[in-house]
From TrEMBL:
SUPFAM superfamilies: Homeodomain-like, Regulatory protein AraC. Residues 190-288 form the HTH araC/xylS-type domain. One of its GO terms (molecular function) is DNA binding. Coiled coil: none annotated. Pfam families: AraC_binding, HTH_18. The keyword DNA-binding applies. This is DNA-binding transcriptional regulator AraC. Keywords: Activator, DNA-binding, Transcription, Transcription regulation. InterPro entries: AraC-bd, AraC_XylS_family_regulators, Homeodomain-like_sf, HTH-like, HTH_AraC, Tscrpt_reg_AraC-type_HTH. It comes from the Bacteria. The gene is araC.
Amino acid sequence: MQPQHLDPPATKQSLDPLMPGYSFNLYLVAGITPIIENGPLDFIIDRPNGMQGYIINMTVAGQGKVFDGDDAFYVNPGDMLLFSPETVHYYGRAPASPNWYHRWIYFRPRAYWAPWLKWQDQTRKVGKLSLPDKTLVTEFDELFQQIDRTHREGRVTSEELAINLLERLLIRAYEISPENLPKPLDSRVQEACQYITRHLGQEIGLEEIARHVCLSPSRLAHLFRDQVGVNILRWREDQRIILAKHLLHSTRTPIARIAGTVGYEDQLYFSRVFRKRVGVSPSEFRKTSGEPLYPYRTPNMDWPHMDIEVPDNGMEFYL
């Protein structure tokens, strides 16, 4: 890595990425920086204009310090940082720590990686992610090491294999970020979902659902959208279409009967909604779905009292 305010001679390039003059002109370079107090690497990395590619690193021992003044923060074992292109680099060993070891990967991303490179927790555009337990620390440490070993192997495909491993690392980091972790549903929203599903063939209104879960209609509407991501009417339509697709595929129930079962008295209207959501008509969907799993035997089939087992708690039909 490049020391503070030290520019290498234009005619020379270092072969060691920890020392001055390394060009970082590859798609991926990886390593570990073992900084020990008063050692040869004990200097501040100071790149006011950042780099052309990204750097992701993870502290594995000691403590590091990033930035000075009000923006300063410290990193400890299990903390990861993501520096995007042209982001200011200013970091080194924390003064109170005798050492700072961090694994790092410099890379130029594939275009479709963009969503995985937008870390929400940032200071001056430097992304931060703290691994919450030892199992994850071990997992990511092993991934960093595997990427480092792979890109050094000297095989024709070493760089591509290392990039594939890096892709896995970035996906895992995205997956475990606090903002991407699944959030448990509020019990009242869950009960509203179950109530809607139990009455999927009926036109129950927001007021009735809210009364059932002991909330005002406005509060339920706000809470539902916040937790589920869509409003109640859209969610109910989603569940109706999911159930209709299931019945079209798994039974020979007439389409008109299925339309009524999932809450559409007008078969033509049901077909328009189905085509808009699925891309084909109900009859076309049935033709391309293969043989039904169950025969249509009972003329009075009615949800949820059917000869086939369809969950009645609503949760299995979440999109």
